[in-house]
Protein 1
Amino acid sequence: MKIIECPRDAMQGLVRQIPTRDKADYLNQLLRVGFHTLDFGSFVSPRAVPQMRDTRDVLGLLDLQTTSTRLLAIVANVRGAQATLDFPEITYLGFPLSISETFQQRNTNQSVQAAFELVPVLNDICMKSGRELVVYLSMGFGNPYGDPYSVDRVLEFVSRLDALEIPIVSLSDTMGQATSEAIRTLFDAVVPSFPKIEFGAHLHAFADRAIEKVKAARQGGCQRLDGALLGYGGCPMAADELVGNIDTELILSVTGYDGMDLNEFGKAKEMATTLFMTYGN
């Protein structure tokens, strides 16, 4: 199981701007822990996500010489993807594609069809620059807007992505509403049907439901799982009330700590507590 730590998602909904140096110090500590990937920032409109407006500057302060952790940045359009070409240290580009038309409009200000048309363009940019595209299927387990949803609809989306040779698809419980049964059912459906795709999960949850969701994803064949230390974060475009990411420590209690430096993990946890207590209010 690849563990993806997501400080970008933990920070992006905060109203108070975290100083660039503080962000970089925290990310550098996370780079010492041993995560497979760090979802560290995004190249999107600073008007849409003000907290991530300094991603370029943060990247210049990261110590990447002694870490094996890979970097992932979120993009929402071609301009954002092209901006990342200045930074060969980024391994993955993440693109949010929603099962819900309403959420696609709220999140990226475009239709699902327009977002789908971007996918092959972004994938081409990735392949030519030696990267991999991660498509996040937002509202992958349903939505609160009344938009059409079914497992068959998800399979249709994944089939189209498979035809485009997208290497990684992350099924996203954007508002934390998925049950463990729904998570297991969806993974049971997609994993054997599309063997060329690496499937991940980006799950949000209230604390009392988190561990059962992690277990369900693992049992269903999830190959990469996103988390955020202390369970901070949530998608500010989805709803007024943010449902946090699943606490990485809880994920590791299920998957094991193989490859993790527990001393550095403890330091990162302390830094997360200070950082989010300081800027999260």
Note: Residues 236-241 have pLDDT under 50 and may be disordered.
Protein 2
Amino acid sequence: MAEFLREYFLPMLHPMQRPEAWGGFHTCFFFIGIPAAVILAFFLRKLKGRGEKRLFLSVGVILILSEIFKQLAYTTIEGAYRFDLIPFQLCSIPMYLCIIIGVMPENTFTRISKTFIATFGLMGGVASYIAPGTMCREWLELTLHSFIWHLVLIFLGFYVFFSNIEELGKRDFAGAVLMYFSLCIIAFAINLICINAPGADVNMFYIGPKPSNLPVCREITARFGVAANSIVYALSLSACAFLIFVSEKILKFVFDRK
């Protein structure tokens, strides 16, 4: 299998000089890609019923296919599977939620899923563009994959904002927070199972038990330990998601009154 991938898959990949944060590559995506994603979300805001479900399902399928491509690409380049790339990071979750929203009838869980996408998902997409270090790779296709992936998260977040945010309430946000903490528990379990896996440290959701490589998290871990960092990190993300949710509610109210 490894020989097959290197013979037929590796020629499809193109090495590149790793883009710099706020260099030309990143700046173009930031100032052209993000506005384009927001505008597209605005024009699709009136999709309802089957149209909306087809949108979520289509995006989910595209994300899954692109994730398969990424996994194959890294396995080909490294010569073995990288366990730190298990698709269970915060920015991976909307891929699964899109499929769920696309196939399930409208219910409490799909409302919570949309709220998660509009808060935690949007936060992940925007944060990655503000600090793009993890998106800048040494292979063109993998760099494009990461930049486009996080653009899709921004598109999905704004789509829910434009089309659904007024229908989503406090209980839906509370459900999204509960979903996040439940996912953190699953992520921690994956990290424990893969704690001795070969390659880079497995740290889904940056929740431990391996130390996080995020700048602020490194400082907290060094002074107070991994457990303290995990708690502070999870609570901080939940607080940021809450601010996003409240801001979206206020903005929608202001726009609707004009």
Note: Residues 226-257 form the longest helix (32 residues).
Protein 3
Amino acid sequence: MVSAQPRYASERAPVRIVFMGTPPLAARILEILLNSPKQQWSVVAVVTRPDQPRGRGLKMESSPVASLAAAHGLPVLKPVSVKTAEFLTTLKSFEPDLLIVAGFGRILPNEVLKAARIMPINVHTSLLPKFRGASPVEGALLAGETETGVTIMRVTERMDAGPILLQRKIPITGDDTQGSLKAKLAELGGTALLEALALLRCNQLSETPQDESLASYTAPIEKKHATIDWHHGAEQIERMVRAYDPWPVARTKLGDTELLIWRARPASGEQLQPEAEPGTLVRLRPRPVVKCGEGWLELLEVQAAGKRRMDAADFMRGRHVPQGVRLGA
């Protein structure tokens, strides 16, 4: 069982929280926390990434977490590095009982973790020990998992390896994309975090070590990962389409045009060309079908770079694309 500090257990004062996160998923978790009963805990500061240039004008833009925190009048720290003495001194000045981390994107050194008087907690969007690392949602979709969830865990210096405090599961549907799944997990992560904090206040939050033999890891997603290799199976490519929606978006080449694939599904191979090379458009009507290394993929929604998303059949008709063209060639 987790033992609380004597001051915390006896005085029942609101738990002082410093929240650390960056993306929209983390902002939603923070919003749920801020909308919870204030007499039980208090967010005293937020740590996020520095502002970054965005858009064609490269205007400096705050992270979603920073924008939400500013709207609530919270102090916002945007350190270039979390390893400096200056940052550590500022962090300690808020006297945090808990550090709550969600999508922060950096490994926190032990000196930072020890700034939390009770413990540092992470909201991780997978069922640990599966899919540790930077892209657990994409990892679950690419692996064809049928369920995922959130893990509330105590943070250690090893990436996502700390003991589990609480887990909650949800199914992955056949229509789920990275975007839809992250939205669901943000809601689940917020409610699971509140549940864990309530158990902590009652000294009923137990720790379960992770089984290292079951651990798997995910790396940061880059744009180059989104290029389709048509030698892969249709099911694998369809998972890729969903895992990379809304970013970086699965893509291929149609001649000199980069073609983004937004929606697709495995298709029946009846009356198609089994001898066709992977990437070949073997049918155009009623919808375009592409030969894969194993199976066939039906294209539902595509987009040429710089153009709008549109129905794949309409796109092919509008471009007068002939049957037999190879994508990605």
Note: The longest strand covers residues 257-267.
